[in-house]
């Protein structure tokens, strides 16, 4: 695995226009799911839905082309 393993499963902030509270949630993609299982951490995070992403993502490749 050649990528930064950083994931924010939940983000709370205020809407910039009206100040209403916003709650954004993101599930774990397949790479994260495998990493959590590999390390035995699959039961340490709150239950959040699994994220669905494209089968291939530039961030998962060896080299990212700009």
Automatic annotation (TrEMBL):
Q: What is this protein called?
A: tRNA pseudouridine synthase C
GO terms, molecular function: catalytic activity, acting on RNA; pseudouridine synthase activity; RNA binding
The GO biological-process annotations, alphabetized, read as: pseudouridine synthesis; RNA processing
Source organism superkingdom: Bacteria
Q: Which InterPro entries match?
A: PsdUridine_synth_cat_dom_sf
């Amino acid at each position: 695995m050649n990528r930064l393993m950083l994931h924010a499963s939940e983000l709370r902030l205020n809407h910039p226009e009206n100040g209403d509270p916003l709650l954004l949630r993101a599930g774990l993609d397949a790479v994260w799911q495998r990493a959590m299982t590999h390390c035995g951490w699959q039961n340490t995070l709150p239950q959040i839905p699994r994220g669905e992403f494209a089968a291939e993502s530039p961030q998962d490749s060896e080299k990212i082309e700009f």
